[in-house]
Design goal:
The protein is α+β, with helices and mostly antiparallel strands. The protein contains 14 helices and nine strands. A nine-stranded mixed sheet has the order 3-2-1-4-5-9-8-7-6, with helices on both faces. Helix 8 links the parallel strand 4 and strand 5. Helix 2 packs across helix 3, helix 2 crosses helix 12 and helix 5 crosses helix 12.
Length: 388
Amino acid sequence: MLSRHLEHVTLTDPAVDLPTLAEVLDTVPDPRSRRGRRYRLGPLLALALLAVLGGATSLVQITRVIAGYDPGVRARLGLPPAIRLAASTLGRLLARLDGDAFDTATCGYLAELAACQPPRQATSPRTPLLGLAVDGKTLRGSRTRHGSTVHLLAAIRHDTQTVLAQRQIEAKSNEIPAFTPLLRSLDLSGTVITADALHTQHNHARQIVAAGGHYLFIVKGNQPTLLRRLKALPWREAILNDRTDESGHGRREIRRMKICAVRPGLPFPHAAQAIQVKRRRTDHKTGKTTIVTIYAITSLPPGRIAHAQLAALIRGHWSIEALHHIRDVTYHEDACRVRTGAAPRVLSSLRNLAIGLARLLGWTNIASATDYYRSHPADGLQLLGLTT
């Protein structure tokens, strides 16, 4: 089980029995020929993860970290004490991995760890709802000479920024066909799926409700009839349901939310409430003020959750953008030129796993976490159940 490296973070049940990271990663099918294998796949991928957790952003840096571990540590993991792994060799191995199997193993592990976290304080007698954001990201550095890039669609918990499912978008396709298989393996009971306007689709809404979940979708011009009906609702007469006033990042933002009960008036499956959010943002440096109006629909019935919680779900959707920002700024994902086979996806999944582990360990700043584990590799080894 994970050892907490921050004093203020504690496990709900320290005795919970979970497999080690090396065991989890060993479930990924090994693409190498049985003849000539000198070491198991799981421990090698586990050490690659620790390198990423310590801030490694390229194959060269990952192999350098793996080579720097004590021979005794590698031997306890089942690796040759004198392993000499070239960056090109590691790249070819990652390129041949099954990306779906890798994401299934790592996302399942994060889901189990997230379930061990202390329960959130309930603000109502009703069962609390979990926010799950769905959005995609293009790995810009993976662009080939033919112009194709790797595009990934992921489902991420609002509260912990842990990736629970991820799929790669097929070439010459988009995110919409990947939405259904992405969520098919997840238990959506007690979950609110949040998504941007691209996924405001009738079939997506039916799938989520049929699986026992709820949705909260942004509505824009790709649904012109629905958007027109939303704008025509009596918002001037509607009362103000929630207001927040926040300052940070050099700006002040005031958000005002109004809600209209709409069933059965909107042409969208299971739509129970319409939401209007007016966002007034003032830049402290320039003094410029911008006002943006956002419309959304949800299957949540009136009174299911408090108005403040509904507003938090809308804001919480952008936690997925925060994850993408960390991968780009801290791990330089868009600058990574790995583009062969499944390697771009696997490296992205290793970053997701490293960020998720750091969040579950209590780190609020991922850059600080990478600095810490780079300077304290023994603490990173505790994640594998090893000590030096």
